[in-house]
Design brief:
Belongs to the KhpA RNA-binding protein family. The chain has 81 residues and is an alpha+beta fold. 37% of the residues lie in helices and 23% in strands.
Length: 81
């Protein structure tokens, strides 16, 4: 599922080299933490969250087909002061 996420997200952004996807296991669910270049966050979220919700729907459907439970979160790293 991680390869699927990388493929989809890299097609949407201007800085594909800045993408990192980290799988984290929590309570039987794999949560993919997506880190992006700050300029690309809006592109991945989309208007009213339509794009990120579509990606999440595809992720849930694909993982359920394999008998897995997955979720996607965008992690925005706060700049150090």
């Amino acid at each position: 599922m991680q390869a699927f996420l990388e493929y989809v997200v890299k097609g949407l952004v201007h800085h594909p080299e800045a993408i990192t996807i980290t799988p984290v296991e929590r309570e039987g669910t794999t949560i993919y933490e997506l880190r992006l270049h700050p300029e690309d966050v809006g592109k991945v979220i989309g208007r009213q969250g339509m794009t990120i919700n579509a990606i999440r729907s595809l992720l849930v459907a694909g993982s359920a087909k394999k008998g897995l439970r997955c979720s996607l979160e965008i992690v925005e790293d706060k700049p150090a002061r």
